[in-house]
Amino acid sequence: MELGPELLEAAVAFAKVLDEAKSKDQPRGGWYPYGSLANMWHLDRLLPADHRDLKVLTAGGPVADVGAAYGDMAYFLNSLGIPTEIIDNPPTNFNSLEGDALLGRLLHSEVPIHSVDLDSQFTLPHANYSLILFLGILYHLENPYYALKAM
Prior knowledge:
Layout: H1 5-24, H2 39-46, H3 54-57, E1 63-66, H4 72-79, E2 84-88, H5 98-106, E3 113-115, E4 131-133, H6 144-150
Parallel strand pairs: 1-2, 1-4, 2-3
């Protein structure tokens, strides 16, 4: 599936699925007020023509959604048949990854959730990822250069 109007329409439809799922239950402390699915529009505007095919971008391994908030992007990509994983750090996540796990149950999704402290000398759950989404987190890290090199 190519980035473009069709994929953006799918993201809008999935946002409604997310809203409906979130209306059924909520984690301790409530839902984080900002969604990450809007990043699809940024990717649509930023990626050049030869890097817009999701099948090509995600071939050869799972996708990692690092610092995933509640995993909106991970669950969306997974709904498109793209193997995706959530990587986040419970102590710095809005409610210790409870919202990610709850959303996965509400969506009947089996997206793996990995606890990784990105401020340590970490290793990722897999040696290779086809695509790593590392959106809105870099400025939160104590050592952003190490995190970028490790990914």
